[in-house]
Specification:
Blueprint: H1 6-29, E1 37-43, E2 59-61, E3 66-75, E4 80-90, E5 110-116, E6 121-135, E7 139-147, E8 150-159, E9 164-173, E10 179-180, E11 193-201
Parallel strand pairs: 2-11
Antiparallel strand pairs: 1-3, 3-6, 4-5, 4-9, 6-7, 7-8, 9-10, 9-11
């Protein structure tokens, strides 16, 4: 058997080292078992997790402007088309169920469609004010909400001594282009939603 000379050994070693480097780069950039998820959070003024309400009081009056931000993150390996459904509930309305993975049965008064690229983070301003209420003997009814530059008709009653809450639900499209209340990876379909409590003062 012919023995390899020094230059041949160096060539083989170079190829071996090069292959290891390529494998390492590929593994780093394209991890096989990369965790995939989508997340959504509600942030306060200046897009931070503080100062959610003027004067740090969740008791707000009609025409009080409140500034929030929706923080959305796509940690999936593909572009995701999503919709954030915004709902107004009182304290007795059922929120989404983590156990049954179902949304709230209350209809959304607005929707926010978005397209998120892989590993993209998006901040969506959510500036609202209660625009119109109807006072009752032991309750008040919110009939109109202004979000940004749009006015929305609602019909939610707040009993005396109780609170209201915004529900933000993240919906996405599956491989068949069906809109589902979740994001799907394999057999897993986790749900993503947030809620923010407040009281309207008549």
């Amino acid at each position: 058997m012919k023995r390899l000379d020094r230059s041949s050994w160096l060539k083989i070693l170079g190829l071996f080292v090069g292959a290891i480097i390529i494998i390492a780069i590929f593994t780093t950039l394209y991890p096989r078992n990369r965790e995939q998820f989508m997340s959504m959070a509600v942030l306060g003024e200046h897009a931070q997790a503080i100062n959610y309400f003027p004067n740090n009081s969740s008791n707000i009056t009609i025409q009080t402007q409140v500034q929030w931000y929706l923080h959305l993150y796509n940690h999936m390996t593909e572009t995701k088309n999503i919709i954030v459904r915004v709902k107004l509930l009182n304290s007795t309305d059922a929120p989404p169920s983590d156990q049954w993975k179902t949304p709230s049965s209350i209809a959304a008064f607005m929707q926010i469609p978005l397209t998120l690229l892989p590993n993209e983070t998006r901040l969506i301003p959510f500036t609202f004010r209660i625009e119109e209420i109807v006072l009752g003997q032991e309750s008040l009814k919110i009939t109109r909400i202004n979000v940004g530059y749009h006015s929305y008709a609602v019909n939610v009653k707040q009993q005396e001594g109780t609170q209201l809450r915004f529900i933000f639900e993240l919906w996405s499209y599956d491989s068949l282009n069906n809109l589902i209340f979740s994001w799907k990876v394999g057999d897993n379909e986790p749900i993503v939603w947030n809620q923010m409590w407040f009281r309207v003062m008549g």
